[in-house]
Specification:
This protein is α+β, with helices and mostly antiparallel strands and about 290 residues long. Strands 1, 2, 4 and 5 form a four-stranded antiparallel beta sheet that branches. Strands 3-12-11 form a three-stranded antiparallel beta sheet, with no helix packed on it. Strands 6-10-13 form a three-stranded antiparallel beta sheet, with helices on one face. The relative contact order is 0.16. Bound molecules: 2-amino-4-trifluoromethylsulfanyl-butyric acid (MF3) and cobalt (II) ion. The site of 2-amino-4-trifluoromethylsulfanyl-butyric acid has 13 residues, from strand 4. Cobalt (II) ion binds next to strand 7.
Length: about 290
């Protein structure tokens, strides 16, 4: 890319001169790059207008999860959850980001107990007393993508499983504390991994979060098992998901070779995951999907 002159219009679209807009910002990023850090390109830094688009998309996303929260019950099939997500998404003028995504057949992922993620809604799978389920909703509205998920507990869930769900929820907060400009994604990862491990749990390595907003899965890949001071530098305007998968037992997973999607824990122990879409702001973060 051609280097911008001081008096050129800034690349961010503000209409201001580069020197009074993002020039010092770019110079600061360049200093990190020279120290061999991974730094974000301009293409993954969102403008205020784009963030507003993602915020609007997120409103649909969370309204859908709120509705699931009201209607989920023992005896309901995961297929019924799919109908609710599909109907509500259309009703509000949105599109499901998962339906048809790389051949994925449904409008939502429903992952129960030892299913880590990407569980496919199924008319034959009825929610049972004691189940824990992750409902993962990904929404497109007006061209903007949002992605979030919550856990639900059905009936009499054993205390040790409740604790897993709770700790997975707290992992989000522990991660959020690290989201601010000039921190690294690895700062967030290590905080989350340390917290999970301190509770006797493990974090899935192979699957993580992602940049999101203009597409479903953008750069960077967001790991929750990397170390402080590593991975991409966080700067204002980055939007990504925090969605660590927390396993009660070992971190190892496998993918169902029949459906090609469902991810299970290797040891059959339960896994829990919450997900938010977050934007890095000038002084910290904004959770878009709250
Ligand atoms: N919603 C998942 C995520 O958080 C992705 C699901 S892709 C699908 O990234 F195809 F399995 F739906
Ligand atoms: Co996601």
């Amino acid at each position: 890319m051609k280097k911008l002159g001081r008096n050129d219009h800034c690349w961010c679209g503000s209409g201001r001169k580069y020197k009074s807009c993002h020039m010092a910002f770019d110079e600061k990023i360049e200093r990190y790059a020279l120290q061999r850090h991974i730094v974000p390109g301009h293409d993954i830094i969102k403008s205020p207008e784009q963030i507003e688009g993602i915020r609007q998309s997120s409103k649909l996303n969370i309204a859908i999860l709120d509705e699931i929260e009201r209607r989920i019950h023992i005896g309901m099939s995961t297929e019924e959850i799919d109908w609710i997500v599909s109907d509500m998404t259309k009703q509000m003028g949105g599109v499901s980001a998962t339906l048809g995504y790389e051949g994925y057949p449904k409008s939502v992922c429903t992952s129960i107990n030892e299913v880590v993620c990407h569980g496919i809604p199924d008319p034959a799978r009825l929610l049972q007393d004691g189940d824990i389920i992750n409902v993962d909703v990904s929404t497109i509205y007006n061209g903007y993508f949002s992605d979030s998920s919550r856990m639900f507990m059905l009936g009499d869930v054993p205390p040790e499983t409740r604790k897993l769900v709770q700790v997975a929820r707290e992992c989000i907060d522990v991660g959020l504390e690290q989201v601010k400009p000039w921190n690294f994604l690895g700062d967030m990862a290590q905080a989350i991994n340390d917290y999970a491990q301190a509770n006797g749990y493990s974090i899935v390595r192979e699957i993580g979060g992602h940049g999101v907003g203009l597409e479903f899965h953008e750069e960077p890949f967001v790991s929750y098992v990397t170390s402080r001071g590593t991975e991409m530098l966080m700067v204002p305007g980055m939007v990504f998901t925090i969605e660590p998968m927390v396993n009660m037992g070992k971190a190892d997973i496998y993918i169902d070779d029949e459906d090609g999607w469902t991810v299970y824990t290797e040891d059959g122990k339960p896994s829990a995951q919450w997900e938010v879409t977050v934007a890095v702001t000038d002084d910290g973060y904004e959770i878009l999907t709250y």
